[in-house]
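Sequence design from tokenized structure. All designs in this work follow the same two-part layout: the structure record, then the generated sequence. An example of the structure record is given first.
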């Protein structure tokens, strides 16, 4: 990417290295994917890991789509 600007590069990309996305790998409705958490109940699809080519044709799995997400904690039996 080439960026031409009169603004110094240090000002444009200031604090860019401070951003660390919170990615998780999940299986949603049988499709493996990587998501980025937005808040406690929503996540954005980043990429699909599915081996099924039909999954890539479904609009609901398009990268950037918001999905409902709530973490499921493993239950241990004592």
């Amino acid at each position: 990417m080439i960026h031409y600007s009169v603004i110094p590069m240090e000002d444009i990309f200031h604090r860019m290295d401070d951003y660390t996305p919170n990615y998780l790998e999940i299986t949603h409705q049988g499709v493996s994917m990587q998501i980025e958490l937005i808040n406690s109940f929503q996540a954005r699809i980043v990429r699909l890991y599915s081996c099924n080519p039909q999954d890539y044709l479904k609009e609901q799995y398009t990268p950037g789509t918001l999905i409902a997400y709530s973490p499921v904690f493993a239950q241990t039996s004592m």
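Residues 64 and 74 are 28 Å apart (CA to CA). We note this feature because it recurs in several other targets discussed in the main text.
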